[in-house]
Amino acid sequence: MMFEGGAKSVFAPLCGKSLDLIWMYNRGHTVVGAEIAEQAVQELFSEKKLDVHVQHVEGVGPLYKSTDGTDGRLQVYVGDLFDLTKYRDLLLSSLKKDGQYYLMIIDYDPAVWPGPPHNITDQRVRQLYGEYCNIEMMQESNLTGISNPDNKASGGNAPPAKPKSAGAALRTSSYLYDRYYKITFK
């Protein structure tokens, strides 16, 4: 089980006002969330009637921290999570040595869809985390059967008609991978 052996520290990206945060918090775990929509974070603390202190964190934005006598075990940062460098820095500030993070990405021809979801290559994952973490690709699935051995955008042309959804666009991509990583802080 994920939470055996006592209280853990958990990082929850794009957490919104997920009930999972409260479930983990109520079981004694330290929960650090990150969210782009400040209203969702405000509603989380308000709806659960948790006392909160808000402070500004340089380079990130507001930090909502529980103040109900539990040592601030529930913390949610609000900021631009699509800036991958800021996201990485926030994540690494939350991890202890040998802390683990599981990451799932999709890699497709960005000419067919600007995102979200955003295209992230294996090379970009290693560029972002390689200096600070050990990176293990746990699984890679080629969803089109077409390989992109250089792991770079194909530079191909976008489909003639603009797709109306990410799913429709990705079906037209010249390549499409999903990859799962285990990232361990050095």
From TrEMBL:
<protein>
    <recommendedName>
        <fullName>Thiopurine S-methyltransferase</fullName>
    </recommendedName>
</protein>
<dbReference type="GO" id="GO:0008119">
    <property type="term" value="F:thiopurine S-methyltransferase activity"/>
</dbReference>
<keyword id="KW-0949">S-adenosyl-L-methionine</keyword>
<dbReference type="GO" id="GO:0032259">
    <property type="term" value="P:methylation"/>
</dbReference>
<dbReference type="InterPro" id="IPR008854">
    <property type="entry name" value="TPMT"/>
</dbReference>
<dbReference type="InterPro" id="IPR029063">
    <property type="entry name" value="SAM-dependent_MTases_sf"/>
</dbReference>
<dbReference type="Pfam" id="PF05724">
    <property type="entry name" value="TPMT"/>
</dbReference>
<feature type="region of interest" description="Disordered">
    <location>
        <begin position="144"/>
        <end position="166"/>
    </location>
</feature>
<keyword id="KW-0489">Methyltransferase</keyword>
<keyword id="KW-0808">Transferase</keyword>
<feature type="compositionally biased region" description="Low complexity">
    <location>
        <begin position="155"/>
        <end position="166"/>
    </location>
</feature>
